[in-house]
Amino acid sequence: MHPRRPRTRWLALLAGTLMLTGCAHRPAGPALSPDDTIRAAQQRLTDRCLTRQGLTPPRPGQRPPSRTEQERVADALFGRPPAELSLTLANGIPVRAHTDGCLAEAQRTLYGDQKRWFRVSTVVNNLRPEAAYRERSLASVRAQHRTELTEWRRMHAHALDASARVLHADTP
Prior knowledge:
Blueprint: H1 5-21, H2 34-52, H3 67-78, E1 85-88, E2 94-97, H4 102-111, H5 114-125, H6 127-134, H7 138-144, H8 146-169
Antiparallel strand pairs: 1-2
Helix pairs in contact: 2-4, 2-8, 4-8, 5-8, 6-7
């Protein structure tokens, strides 16, 4: 037997044991749900965007900044009027969103197409109210919006993959 072979086996065994016991890296916390993973990545992206602009991302329990600072953060986060995206719900209520701002930037990064995401997510998130307004079953309204539901699932899966990359990029 070659004199270095036992040492190589021992090192391989040691490395394998460390990886299995978690000593080779920081232990992972509990797994996030898909929606929580996307929310965490969106938060990370919006925080980075605000920080690049010299603004402090808002946090619960934090002492509120001045009114002027709150307005600057809100404009940077949500965009400035007028809203460029608009969709009218079945009940006649318009829903609007901006294509500028940190939130819009995060949505483009995660979903790939912010305008398309706005449209399909607004429709899908309002299926139950549409069913109630039209006095139809939720199943029939879902069937009517099959295309939007399919696109929502596709874009959600894309966002989950992108979110994992965003969150993984920040881990040591």
